[in-house]
From TrEMBL:
Coiled coil: none annotated. Pfam families: 4HBT_3C. InterPro entries: ACOT8-like_C, Acyl-CoA_hotdog, HotDog_dom_sf, Sec_Metab_Biosynth-Assoc. Gene3D superfamilies: Acyl-CoA thioesterase, double hotdog domain. This is Acyl-CoA thioesterase-like C-terminal domain-containing protein. Residues 185-312 form the Acyl-CoA thioesterase-like C-terminal domain. It comes from Lichtheimia corymbifera JMRC:FSU:9682.
């Protein structure tokens, strides 16, 4: 496969566990101008036996933010635009076949650069059909015909530092952060060694009082890694699910809640943030398909991001390896 640029970017492996799990390297550009990155899925960051989709999609903005200079060096206009794009504004992801342990490739394509300081990017995550294949180290080793697309993402980039205008909030979930005083230490069933968590347990059933499908918690990385745009994407999809507050009679047994679509809108720049206060709620479950809304704050009460998911309520057995080859849809 011929390429537009053979320049490779040497990056040092990071020290923090989350960054190690999401590490990848720039391997070149295709003839069509897409920037290509490659890495390996870390199976330790999984929900059940399915690698966490959130870990994979949040790779995309990191690639762009870290390597924009190399990505755009061949085009002076794109280079100037890239230098002004400091922040993620919105992420919309569609999941396709489930991700698995093994190599992956990410392609980034510009859809709509703008002289007004915004840029829309198309980002795809792909894995080789042969999951034993090595991670490509150069774009010439990457043949799209040998890969299967796993996620399709649209990113909007901009610079929040330069945004000015009207400010008005009238969203009940995002009106204020949850109270840390109402929380107690808790532990997730998966990836608990990487996560510190405090949770308001009042949404669970209390005696004869049924629970409500909401989660209010405070979370951070156990190794002290600070919160940034990259990890905000992770925390927007990492929580003990609100549906688990409902009675098993309503759910119909143990359930998995795979994400079909995910949208994240980033509202402010995280500054010296080590913990996130967040609320998530499920307004509607209709025929096993449901929507989920979330709001994430820093500990000073600043709104960092809001998120909306479209998900399915399916038997937990769908999370097993025997079902992993089936499309979520």
């Amino acid at each position: 496969m011929s390429i537009a640029s053979s320049t490779q970017v040497t990056t040092q492996p990071p020290q923090k566990a989350f960054d190690q799990a999401t590490f990848s390297s720039y391997i070149g550009q295709t003839v069509s101008g897409t920037a290509v990155y490659a890495g390996r899925v870390n199976p330790k960051w999984s929900v059940g036996q399915v690698p966490a989709v959130s870990v994979l999609y949040l790779l995309h903005p990191l690639h762009y933010l870290t390597h924009s200079r190399q990505t755009y060096a061949y085009n002076a206009f794109f280079y100037r635009v890239a230098m002004s794009l400091q922040c993620l504004l919105e992420l919309c992801l569609i999941t396709l076949p489930p991700t698995k342990g093994g190599a992956f490739v990410v392609e980034i394509r510009e859809l709509k650069p703008s002289k007004f300081g915004y840029c829309v990017l198309e980002v795809t995550l792909q894995q080789p059909k042969d999951l034993t294949a090595p991670v490509p180290t150069h774009v010439n080793e990457y043949d799209p015909a040998d890969y299967v697309k796993k996620t399709h993402t649209i990113l909007t980039m901009g610079n929040m530092e330069k945004e000015k205008g009207t400010n008005y909030i009238h969203t009940p979930l995002a009106a204020k952060p949850p109270s840390f005083d109402a929380m107690e230490p808790n532990q997730a069933d998966f990836m608990s060694e990487f996560i510190d968590m405090y949770q308001d347990m009042s949404t669970y059933p209390q005696g004869d009082k049924p629970g409500i499908p909401e989660v209010h918690h405070c979370v951070g990385f156990s190794d002290g890694r600070p919160i940034d745009f990259k990890s905000l994407a992770f925390w927007s999809d990492m929580f003990i699910h609100p549906n688990y507050s409902l009675d098993q009679k309503i759910l119909g047994g143990p359930r998995w809640c795979p994400t079909m679509q995910l949208e994240i809108q980033f509202k402010s720049v995280p500054r010296n943030v080590n913990k996130v206060l967040a609320s998530f709620a499920v307004p509607h479950i209709i025929n096993n398909r449901f929507d989920l809304d979330g709001a994430l704050f820093d500990q000073q009460g600043n709104l960092l991001a809001i998120t909306r998911h479209q998900c399915l309520l399916v038997p937990w057995e769908r999370n097993t390896p025997s079902a992993a080859t089936k499309n979520k849809l």
